[in-house]
Amino acid sequence: MVADTELPYMRKLFVYGTLELEPYMDFVLNATYIVIGEGGNLIIGWEDQPMIGNVLINLNGNWDTPDIPVQGGPNIGSKALGKCQ
């Protein structure tokens, strides 16, 4: 999937396929947790087509935000960007 529109606030973003950001647009990605599943990809530009737009990733949460379990790995706390194996 290629994102070509403004992204909403997401508490949990799980990417099990491919999420590619359109290279000519600006993006603000707001989430508490971002987890890239096994075989998943978050693509922000390519070697032959680099990201021209700006990308801001805001990871939200604090010390009392609950952890989430991840299959085959440790729990992930808030303000985390993780990849499952």
Can you give a write-up of this model?
- There is one protein chain.
- The protein has strands at about 1-5, 10-15, 20, 25-35, 40-45, 55-60, 80-85.
- The chain is mainly β and about 80 residues long.
- It is globular, with a radius of gyration of 13 Å.
Write out key terms for the chains shown.
85 residues; three-stranded parallel beta sheet; mainly beta; four-stranded parallel beta sheet
Describe the structure concisely.
This protein is mainly beta and 85 residues long. It has no helices and seven strands.
Secondary structure topology:
Layout: E1 2-3, E2 10-15, E3 18-21, E4 27-36, E5 41-43, E6 55-59, E7 80-83
Q: Helix coverage percent of residues?
A: under 10%
Q: Summarize the biggest pleated sheet.
A: 4 strands, parallel
- Low-confidence runs: none
The number of distinct helices, counting runs of at least 4 residues, comes to: 0
Mean pLDDT: 91
Report the sheet-strand fraction. Answer: 35-45%
**How many β-strand runs?**
7
Spatial extent as radius of gyration = 13 Å
Derived from helix and strand composition plus strand pairing, the structural class reads mainly beta
* Series of secondary-structure elements, N-terminal to C-terminal: EEEEEEE
Q: End-to-end distance, in Å?
A: 21 Å
Shape: globular
